[in-house]
Each structure stands twice: as C-alpha cells, then as structure tokens.
C-alpha cells in the first residue's frame, strides 16, 4: 500500500471509528474474562461537548482502551441525565417564545413538550463524544428517564419510605425563584458579594424610645415577628418585656431575649423573620413566634408587602430604602461583604423558604460510605487530598431534600386520599396505592379517582445516585447476569465539584442496595481553566469550540494536548498550543513510520554491529519505560504515563534508534534490522493506542495487512521482559559522547560528511559496547583508546573520561587559543563570584535550601568547564 506523504486526521478518524463500530469492538457481554467496567458520568441530555467533557471522557477512553489491550472484558456504559432544572428551564423558554405559558398546560401536555425537546436535542453530546474517539458500549446507552431506570428510582423511594428513612416535613429550604423549586444545600453556591448593611430605627410601643437594627435585607421587615436581644446585654435592659413597631407596616412585635444574639454584631439587636431565615426559624419555634411569608414563588412581594405587592424583591428593596430614608427611619448605611447563596443551575439568588418537602434521612445511611473511603480503604480517591473534603461533607451530612417543584422528572409515588397532610400512601403503582389506601381507611369502595398523586418530582440526583446499579438493571433484577458480572465497577472519572452531589451518594446507595462498593477507584480530574486561570464558561466566552479543535488539530492531537498537562486533581491551564503540540507529535510519528517503510531491504547483507546493539538497548529501554508507564497508570498519573510514552517515541526511538539503524544514503537495510524495528514500532503503537487511537490503528494496518480479529484495538498489551540496566547506562554515556562530538562539529563548522579522528582516555573504564554506534553517529574515521592527552586536539569530558578530536589544520589554532582563553577568563570570573557568595556564612545559613544548592551546582559546573578548557588549551599549545 502506498503511504500518503501527509497524515490526514479527518479522513483517518472517520474511517477507523466506523470500522470499530462495524466490528462491534466496543460491545461487551459477560464471559470468562476479568471484567473492567466504567460508567460514564451522565452529561445533561440537552448538553453539548465542552472542555470539561473532553478531558473527562478522554481519560475514561484511555483507561478503557488500555484494559482491552490487557485482555480484560472492557465495558464502558454511556448515557445521559434528564437534568430536571436545566431541561425544564429550556423547555419553558421554548414554550414562552411560542406564546405558551407552562402554567396553562397539564402535566401530560408539558411532558409531551419535554420529550419532544429531548428527542430533538438529546443525545447530541454522545454523538460528539464519538468524534473524540470514545469507545463506549453504545448498545448499552441509558437515559435516567428510561422506563426501566424510572422504575428503579420509584422502587428505591418506596423501599426507603417503608424503612422509615423518607419523610415529609415542613422545613426551611433553599428556594430557587427562577426555577421555582427547592434545591438541596449542595446545589447552592455561596458567592462573596459586596452588599450593604442598613441601620433602621424601630419605635418602642407606648414610649418615645427607639432601637436600631442592622439588616442586609430591608425588604424582609414585612416578615418581622420579633426583635431579639441578648439577656446579658446591659444596653437593652430597659427594653425587656416591651414591644416594637415595625416600620412601614406598623406591625407590633414582641422584644424577646435569647443568648443566640451576638452582642458584637451590628447594633446587638436582631430582627427575627422566621419565614425567611433558618436561624430565625429556630428562634421562632423556640419562642412560639408568628411566621409571616412575604414572598411569592418568583420572589416578588405578596400582599404582606402592602404597596410593594408584585414587585421583584430587588426592585422593592431600592424603593423601600427610599421610603425609609424619607421617613427618617434609615439611620445610616455601611458597605458589607457577605456570602450570598445562589443557585448552581440558574444563578438566581436563593431565598430561604418554609415549605412542605420530602426528605431522606442520611446520617445512618452515610456511615458505610464514610468507612469505605476513610477507614477500610475499599474505595480510593485520587488524589488522596480529597479525602479531607469527603470527610467534612459526610461527617456533617444533613437530611437530603429530594423533592422538586418540577414536572420533568420521576413523579413522587405518594398518593393522597384525604384532606390532611398525613392522608397519603406510598406505592410503586397506582394499583398498589389503591390497595394500601383501602386498608388504611377501611374503605373498600376507594377508586383511582379518589386518589391524587403528589405533584412534586424527585431530585435528579436521586436518579443518578443509582447509576452504577440501574444501568445494569441491578435494582429491579438484583440477581441478573450483568449486575453480578460488571458490579462493582472499576474506575469512576469525574470532577471534584460533584464529589458529594454524586460520588458520595452513589457510595451510599451501593452499600444500601448491594452491600458493596459501587467502584474501586475515583479519579478526580481538575477543572479546565484558561491561561488567566479563569474557569472556562460560556458567559466568559473563554471556552473554545470543542469540535473545531478536533477539526483543526485532529482528535488525537486534542487528546494529547489535554492530557499532557492534566495531573489528577489539579486544574488544567488550557492553551491551544498544547493541541498543536499533539498534532506535531502525530506528524512526527507518521514521518518516522514513512522513513522506516521507505527503506529498501536486502536479505543478503549482514546486520551491522551498531544496529544489533542499538536494537538490544532499545528493547531494554522500552521495557524500563513500560514499567514506568504501568506504575503511572496504577497511580492514575495519566499525564505522566503519556509523557513517558512521548519521550520514548520522540527521543529514544525517533531521535536515537532510527538514526543509528538508518542505512547510508541510497543504501538498503538488512532484513533482520527492518523486521526488528517493525516489531518495535508495533509495541510502541500498543502503548500509544489508548492516548492516540486513530493514528495508531492507521499505522498498525499499514505495517501489515490484518484481519478484523487482528485490529490494534483488541491487540495484546506488550509482555514484560528482562531489563539490561547496564546496557541502558552505557548507552546514556554513549549518547553524551555523540552529543559532545556534534557540539564540536557545530562550533567549528565541520561538516558531517567530513570524517574526524577520535581518541579517549577511558578513566571510567566504560565498556566498548557502543563504540560502533558512536563511530557511526559521529562519522569517525578512527576510534582510539589512549593514555595521554592528544596535542592539537579539541576535547570534552563525559564524567571523568576525556575525549579528543584532532584538528589537523581544520581550524585556525591561534584564533582558537584566543577564543578559549577569553572563555577561560570569563568562566574563572564567574566562578569567583559564585564562590564569594558561598563563602558568605549569612547567605548560606539564611537562603532557602534550593537556592544554596543551585549556587553549589553552578560552582561545580564552572570548575568542570574550566578543567575542560584548560585541557583544550594544553592540547593546542
């Protein structure tokens, strides 16, 4: 086959992805092999590929492809998440653009629109992952709203309710006024913002006294139901037992005492608004205070806001401040920095709100998950530093608010049969609910029409926490063949931002429903940031188009670019130059392959000694690097594994081995060497394949014509063999010698075609193993071992060995002496300045250890250089 002169990524990528799909290499079924399983962190069904997805899924693909090469039964389950809040928001916006109000639709009508949206836009991201080369088992693709997946969610809800772990309670929750739903604590991001502290005067009933209250939210005065003072605060002894009048609304409220009040904050008086602050609610319950909710579900003021009714809270705040100021109630205003709770999804400012919600008790459920990570080490986090974060979250866990005021999602399986809050049953189906309701009420005449299902949907995470089990139908059919074979899974690759949202909850669910961990290892990637260290986002406009990157640099180039600087748990400073580096690496490999394939072979010539020893050296170097790579994989240092592979191919293979074995111009290569180098190329392709699957598969089929059963994707990982460490260290010295010869040629403008003589004083007793290699790469006409320095020669050192290249008229000796003398004088002056610094005890004792070490290295290097220059001068005189 004719090999194209240039590597065309776009042509190659489509060809081989179709080939892999056609031959079903990605699909897995249980068999006698060791399983290796990954479940994808399901992206939002309507999402598109961004840099975080690119990084995360490249890592997963590297792991799954390596497992295949190791002979494991590799199964990577893909899928998407229905993303209740995000998807419903998009559907609502689409309906609004069409002049349709969500509130005018029945649940069934809205869900039809949601499914239409999902069918139109859902799964786009999975198709985009194919462009990246992701080798998922597409036949196993799951969606959290699939019928079987939803059945599993409902089954778990009912089971946990029957165990007494799910309850309905009237609690203070986080309310997202844009999505009009509650959020769990973990879905609230606390953003530091510059706000203001407003000092307001409240009149004391029946007197001319006033007290001053400091608040950051003056609009909430309409919900005030008490003023609280610290009983030990002598400043307010005269107010005990009295009542205050709330500004504007004129409500008379009691002045209560509680040591909860911080006497140092603000004025030492606290306005108590039980409906809109969690701590105030605790105070309200303790002192039996009235609860006044002043907000509508969109955070506009309701009728309690009087003439501000219907105004948005922030609009109302400005108007209220003006009114308070005009009435002389606003005493002063101070700048104040506080942390404001915002919705992770909509970015709206959260309102604390009292509401009837469904909760899951977490304290007892969490204990096995705490033990698995922090005590028994059954589950390992990489990097380990995230264990502290995990510990903090899990040991301070709160009950999980699992209900959402949304239509898109699994509808909570609670059915109301009466008017009271407790008049409900929980069941997997309506038929079961009717039976339970009949038992509960002793009314055998109850029908489906007498029951009303809870309108709330379940939190999306309540679906995805079952993911490693539900994708294998392990909840509905806990003894099926798939769940028994593939569970627990092996590696989970995700971001640290969902360590608690998803990872910890999956561990909780795994121990509750399988009494086993859901995965063995959790690889936590960093966030992808730009060169200014900003998190990549659409709003900042700093996130490149992922598919355009693939078009410009090839999928392999982008994968290499991402991985080269992506150490586990550390943020990646993305720079497009990294992808260019990946593309250049692909071109380097392609050109190296074309070089080898372009050599003519002569079966009748013998293998040169230089080629024989070089191939023997490279085999040991390969085996040494293979061990290094496998150690990096074991520690989830994929960036280091790739870099070791990169250096082996770029430096050791392309820059050294191919140069050594390359035949002379227009001369053939011996058959034995060519066979060996092709075998080496195949092994290099195997270890590179997980990182650069397309390029490697393409070259693999050029090296030899292969059947589908011999494709690289299912080839065998290289076997471990004995390493000759002596040979490796001998080559390292030989490489330094060759570099020394090349430096002298460059400095003295001696063309490579001009052979030079070479002599060495072998003080190190280095074996002559690589003398033929040195001779070939240095183009030496003779190689002598001598006991005395050579007159009229230039010299260099490697360790204590001295190497001489006689100049015999090829240079101007007098000019060279002048040049070397100047260099000697400069180096001696430099040495003097370094030694002066090192003789300063104050510097040595106070400078950082690495600074002192650096100066000592400068001293040693200068001394060695001076010795070499003197030797060269001596040989020229």
Distance between the termini: 60 Å
Based on secondary structure, the structural category is: alpha/beta
| Strand segment count | 31
> What amount of the residues lies in strands?
15-25%
Instruction: Return the CATH class of the domain at 546-723.
Output: Mainly Alpha
- CA radius of gyration: 37 Å
Helix content: 40-55%
Q: Which runs of at least 5 residues are low in confidence (pLDDT < 50)?
A: none
Q: How is the main sheet built?
A: 7 strands, mixed
For this structure, the CATH topology of the domain at 546-723 is Isoleucyl-tRNA Synthetase, Domain 1
Quickly give the CATH architecture of the domain at 546-723: Orthogonal Bundle
Walkthrough of the structure:
There is one protein chain. With 877 residues, this protein is an alpha/beta fold. Among the domains are: 181-351, Valyl/Leucyl/Isoleucyl-tRNA synthetase, editing domain (Isoleucyl-tRNA Synthetase, domain 2, Alpha-Beta Complex), CATH 3.90.740.10; 546-723, Isoleucyl-tRNA Synthetase, Domain 1 (Orthogonal Bundle), CATH 1.10.730.10; 749-876, Helix Hairpins, CATH 1.10.287.380. 44% of the residues lie in helices and 17% in strands. It contains 26 helices and 31 strands. The longest helix has 28 residues, at 849-876. The protein is globular, with a radius of gyration of 37 Å.
């Amino acid at each position: 086959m004719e090999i194209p002169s240039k590597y065309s990524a776009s042509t190659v990528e489509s060809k081989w992805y179709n080939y892999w799909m056609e031959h079903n290499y990605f699909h897995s079924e249980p068999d006698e092999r060791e399983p290796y399983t990954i479940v994808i962190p399901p992206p939002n069904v309507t999402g598109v590929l961004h840099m975080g997805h690119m990084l995360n899924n490249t890592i997963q693909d590297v792991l799954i492809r390596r497992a295949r090469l190791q002979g494991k039964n590799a199964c990577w389950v893909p899928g998407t998440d229905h993303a209740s809040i995000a998807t419903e928001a998009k559907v609502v916006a689409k309906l609004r653009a069409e002049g349709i109000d969500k509130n005018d639709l029945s649940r069934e009508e809205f869900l039809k629109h949601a499914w239409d949206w999902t069918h139109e836009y859902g799964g786009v991201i999975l198709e985009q992952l194919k462009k990246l080369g992701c080798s998922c088992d597409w036949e196993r693709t799951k969606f959290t709203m699939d019928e079987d997946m939803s059945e599993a969610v409902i089954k778990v809800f009912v089971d946990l309710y029957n165990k007494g772990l799910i309850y309905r309670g009237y609690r203070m929750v986080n309310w997202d006024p844009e999505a009009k739903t509650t959020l769990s604590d973990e879905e609230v991001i606390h953003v530091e913002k510059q706000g203001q502290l407003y000092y307001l005067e409240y009149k004391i009933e029946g007197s001319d006294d006033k007290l001053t209250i400091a608040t950051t939210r003056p609009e909430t005065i309409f919900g005030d139901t008490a003023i609280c003072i610290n009983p030990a605060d002598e400043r307010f002894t005269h107010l005990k037992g009295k009542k205050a009048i709330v500004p504007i609304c004129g409500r008379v409220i009691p002045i209560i005492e509680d040591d909860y009040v911080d006497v140092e904050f603000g004025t030492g008086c606290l306005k108590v608004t039980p409906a809109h602050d969690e701590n105030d609610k605790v105070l309200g319950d303790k002192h039996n205070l009235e609860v006044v909710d002043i907000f509508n579900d969109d955070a506009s003021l309701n009728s309690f806001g009087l003439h501000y009714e219907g105004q948005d809270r922030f609009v109302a705040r400005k108007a209220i401040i003006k009114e308070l100021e005009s009435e002389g109630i606003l005493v002063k205003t101070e700048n104040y920095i506080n942390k404001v709770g915002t919705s992770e999804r909509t970015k709206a400012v959260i309102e604390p709100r009292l509401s009837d919600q469904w909760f899951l008790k977490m304290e007892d459920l969490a204990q096995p998950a705490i033990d698995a990570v922090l005590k028994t080490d059954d589950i390992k986090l990489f990097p380990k530093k995230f264990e502290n974060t995990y510990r903090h979250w899990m040991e301070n866990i709160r009950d999980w608010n699992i209900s959402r005021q949304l239509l898109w999602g699994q509808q909570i399986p609670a059915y109301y049969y009466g008017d009271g809050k407790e008049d409900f049953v929980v069941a997997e189906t309506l038929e079961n609910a009717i039976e339970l309701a009949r038992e509960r009420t002793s009314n055998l005449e109850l029908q489906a029409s007498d029951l009303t299902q809870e309108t709330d949907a379940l939190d999306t995470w309540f679906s995805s926490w079952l993911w490693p089990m539900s994708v294998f139908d392990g909840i509905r059919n806990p003894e099926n063949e798939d769940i028994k074979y593939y569970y627990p899974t092996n590696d989970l690759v995700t971001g640290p931002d969902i360590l608690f949202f998803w990872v910890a909850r999956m561990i909780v669910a795994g121990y509750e429903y399988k009494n086993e961990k859901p995965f063995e290892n959790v690889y936590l990637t960093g966030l992808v940031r730009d060169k200014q260290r900003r998190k990549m986002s659409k709003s900042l406009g700093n996130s490149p188009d992922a598919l355009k990157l693939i078009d410009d640099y090839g999928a392999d180039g982008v994968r290499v670019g991402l991985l080269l600087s992506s150490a586990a748990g550390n943020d990646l400073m993305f720079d497009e130059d990294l992808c260019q580096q990946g593309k250049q690496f692909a071109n380097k490999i392609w050109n190296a392959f074309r070089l080898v394939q372009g050599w003519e072979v002569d079966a009748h010539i013998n293998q040169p000694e230089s080629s024989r020893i070089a191939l023997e050296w490279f085999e040991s170097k390969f085996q040494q690097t293979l061990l290094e790579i496998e150690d990096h994989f074991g520690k989830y240092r994929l960036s280091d594994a790739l870099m070791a592979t990169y250096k082996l191919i770029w430096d050791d293979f392309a820059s050294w081995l191919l140069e050594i074995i390359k035949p002379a111009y227009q001369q053939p290569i011996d058959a034995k060497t060519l066979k060996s180098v092709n075998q080496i190329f195949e092994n290099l392709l195997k270890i590179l394949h997980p990182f650069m699957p397309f390029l490697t598969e393409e070259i693999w089929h050029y090296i030899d014509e292969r059947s589908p059963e011999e494709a690289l994707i299912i080839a065998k990982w290289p076997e471990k063999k004995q390493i000759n460490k002596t040979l490796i260290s001998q080559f390292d010295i030989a490489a330094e010698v060759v570099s020394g010869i090349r430096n002298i040629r460059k400095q003295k403008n001696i063309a490579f075609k001009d052979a030079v003589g070479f002599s060495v004083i072998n003080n190190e007793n280095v074996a002559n193993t690589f003398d033929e290699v040195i001779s070939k790469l240095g183009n030496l006409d003779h190689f002598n071992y001598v006991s005395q320095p050579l007159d009229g020669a230039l010299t260099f050192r490697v360790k204590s060995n001295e190497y001489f290249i006689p100049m015999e008229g090829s240079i101007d000796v007098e000019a060279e002496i002048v040049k070397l003398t100047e260099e000697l004088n400069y180096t001696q002056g430099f040495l003097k300045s370094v030694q002066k610094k090192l003789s300063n005890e104050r510097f040595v004792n106070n400078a950082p250890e690495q600074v002192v070490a650096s100066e000592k290295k400068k001293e040693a290097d200068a001394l060695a250089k001076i010795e070499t220059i003197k030797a060269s001068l001596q040989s020229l005189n």
